[in-house]
Amino acid sequence: MKKTFASLIVSALILSSTPHFVAADDLSEQKAKNEQKQQENAKTQKNLESSVNQEGQKISKTQQEVNRLDEALNEKMFAVETKDRQIKATEAEIVELGKQIEKYKAKLKRQEKLLGDRLRVMQENDGNSIKWEEVIFGSKDVGDLVSRVLAGKSISQQDDKMITDYQNTQKN
């Protein structure tokens, strides 16, 4: 019986060790599969990291382009604002010049009226603005003569000034 018992134990040991060997084969297969999956995962991770880096570079280039365009837009907006200010200043200047033109027209009209009156007097006096013979012969004494000559001279200077002013107004 000892022999039988010993053979039973040996058989049990053999039987129990056989699945052990099969499990070891499964483990080495499983280990190989895990290593292969790890390699595939590492390769996939490397590809994904490369894609992320490429996309990051694209985003960086796009951001640089956006920044460049934004800067160009800001420059254009500043230029437009500057032109708007220049246009407003020019429009204000045009309005002011229009007012000055109206003033000159009114001044010219007044001067033409005065000049017309003076020219009529000159024509009546044979081309002179003053009748000098009336000044000289119409004076009562020497003081009156001097006073009349000075007044005539003053009138003559005013006539000359009026003509000069009229000519200057026409030029402006």
Question: How would you explain this protein's 3D organization?
Answer:
- The protein is mostly helical and 172 residues long.
- It has 3 helices and no strands.
- Helix content is 92%, strand content 0%.
- 0% of the residues are buried.
Overall pLDDT score: 85
Oligomeric category: single chain
Strand content: under 5%
The tally of beta strands, per DSSP, is 0
Question: Fraction of residues in helices?
Answer: over 70%
- Which runs of at least 5 residues are low in confidence (pLDDT < 50)? 18-22
- Pairing-aware structural class of the strands and helices? mainly alpha
Q: Summarize the biggest pleated sheet.
A: none
Shape descriptor reads rod-shaped
Helix run count? 3
SSE string: HHH
The first-to-last residue Cα distance is 148 Å
Instruction: Please tell me how large the radius of gyration is.
Output: 59 Å
Question: What is the compact description of this entry?
Answer:
With 172 residues, the protein is mainly alpha-helical.
List keywords for this structure.
0% strand; 3 helices; 172 residues; mainly alpha; 92% helix; rod-shaped
Write the layout of secondary structure elements.
Blueprint: H1 2-124, H2 132-137, H3 142-171
Helix pairs in contact: 1-3
